[in-house]
Amino acid sequence: MAVDARLPRAVRDSDVVAALRSPRRLKTESLAGLVVALALIPEAISFSIIAGVDPRVGLFASFTMAVTIAIVGGRPAMISAATGAVALVVAPIAREHGLDYLLATVILAGVLQIVLSALGVAKLMRFIPRSVMVGFVNALAILIFLAQVPHMTGVPWLVYPMIAAGLLIIIGLPRLTTAVPAPLVAIVLLTAVTMTAGLTVPNVGDEGDLPSTLPQWLIPDVPYDLDTLRLIAPYALAMALVGLLESLMTATLVDDITDTRSDKTREGWGQGVANVVTGFFGGMGGCAMIGQTMINVKSSGARTRISTFLAGLFLLVLVVGLGDLVARIPMAALVAVMVMVAVGTFDWHSIAPATLRRMPRSETAVMLVTVAITVATHNLAFGVVGGVIVATLLLVRRVAHFTEVVPTESAAPGTRTYRVQGELFFASSNDLVHQFDYANDPDHVIIDLSATHVWDASTVAALDAIETRYRGKGKEVEFVGLDAASAERHGRLSGHLGGEH
């Protein structure tokens, strides 16, 4: 398969075949995968603890998710693995009913994600406003930083200069060379110093035991009946929705960073396939990881599926084959990497004084609500849903106030004409009934709707109520100027809604 040189560089870089033919690109993808794999280990262990399962369950999930999504996903270079959001959702089923029920839940969640994606759930992304996306990114950055705080409190004093050294390497090295990812250099150097000097500082091994065997295919040992389905279905549906939302939001973010477009529907069902595979290999399931994706795409410069695949492969090799060495990586090195990821992820422009002065207050409010809910709940999905709800309410309120009724001159004697301006829907049409002079108007009233549009049944009911009130006064009202869609809706619903008052 030849790569068209006329294509934009971002498009060419996303092509796996082109990357395999380019030693420079292949090195970038490989090193990016290694950095991500190192960063995944403590995260997967931490999420396993949140879910109340053995660390191997989280590590195996990260391996199978990354490898599978690299093949079937729709967003190249995006990292999927065990995540905190999914861990929070499935923790109750694991705690109360055990690992087998957890695995059954993960498999069912994957099936639901495939079905929802086939039904077009990815198209709902168009209804997420930019202010929610900005809030989502900023909240993510805050959560990434907050996740590092426990590793910086109650620790030996040596941890702090090590973190500072790691930050200096990550910030300063790219100014000298970009041949090797700065985060990888920081991890290797700090690990070498720790081992050579015999420093006693918290390391990856302190987070939990690493597996010594490969994951094995298994079928959850649960009764396959309606009782089991009723038990796991609520958790599976919640996991499916949270995973899809977080994955599709991450894919949109990577699209913006790389200036490319991805197949969101394929990404959705790809997440489902990855979770099904993960469940059958004893993993706790997961979704896209924004922090690790930022390491891969932004910090390391990866652009293809190769980096995602290698991240999963390296993870397995590291924890199974080189577990003793990996366990000695100081947490300070990984904290430095994640702190820089948080700083790089945050949209600093969104809180600049000049931006805040220029931006409408409603947009800023939506962004802040998204951040506040996400940080308070530690759940990105809750924050996004809350932000969308607030954005919708503010939009409805703003649009509703644009509707007005204006009396105009009428050429015919004994006739009064009103002109309605603005959009008519449930929020704006509720007050429409009270804007006419029923008692003093002449016997014939014309209501001109040419400058508006009838959007819903609430508006038709309001028009029926206006007609009923005029009829009660012995007067006739005529609606004119309806566009084709409004006329069809009015003709179909008028007189059939009941409660015309």
From TrEMBL:
Localization, UniProt: Membrane
Keyword Transmembrane: yes
Stored Gene3D superfamilies: STAS domain
InterPro entries found in the cross-reference section: Membrane-Transporter-like, SLC26A/SulP_dom, STAS_dom, STAS_dom_sf
GO cellular component, one term: membrane
Cited PROSITE patterns: STAS
TM region positions: 31-51, 57-73, 78-95, 101-119, 131-149, 155-173, 180-201, 232-253, 273-294, 306-326, 333-351, 371-396
Entries under Pfam families matching the protein: STAS, Sulfate_transp
Record's bilayer topology term: Multi-pass membrane protein
Keyword Transmembrane applies: yes
Ranges of residues in domain STAS: 405-501
Superkingdom of the source species: Bacteria
Chief location bin: membrane
Organism: Tsukamurella tyrosinosolvens
Name of this chain's protein: Sulfate permease, SulP family
The entry's keywords: Membrane, Transmembrane, Transmembrane helix
